[in-house]
Amino acid sequence: MTEKELMLSEHLYIADDEELARDHQNARRLTRLINTLTEEDAKEQRALYRQLFGHVGERFWVEPPFRTDYGCHTYIGEDFYANYDCIFIDVAEIHIGNNVMFGPRVCIFTAGHPIDPVIRNSKLEYGKEVHIGDNVWIGGNTVINPGVTIGNNVVIGSGSVVTKNIPDNVVAAGSPCRVIRAITDADRTYWVQEAAKYHELRKKDQP
User: What span, in angstroms and rounded, lies between the C-alpha atoms of 149 and 181?
Assistant: First the structure.
């Protein structure tokens, strides 16, 4: 197997490899271009993101600046938004569902290094995939660690360090991140009422 094949299969691999270096340089080139374009260049930025990511839906936006190791190992669904300063270390695949929002400085780390110092110093490393479901909101300054799966309809509080899987339909937060409570019908009722108030207030501004 090649080093890239080993890496994407979640085996130990060595990153000092020509194929991986080419992929990494391409990601650096694309993110440099994205991060130096102005706010008038949104269309061009979107086109560059499409070149960078393995897949991204029709409707998305990632606020620059943005950093990633490869980009091509990241797969994103529809209606994705990421705020400023996000970092995706995608030595293993990152899968993000539909209707997902990231606050500023959300970091996804798939990379890991051996605990044993002798093996670690030999340059062997590994990656573990990260999966994020649909309808997820992740607060700013959250770190998502290798191998984590976050379920559907989840809210992660800001400043969290997610080290273990998070189930569907919960609010979770903390370092390490843990489930705080379930998301219930009472939450939906409350926010439906708040949305109705919004629409009523907007009507008052209309002639």
Answer: 18
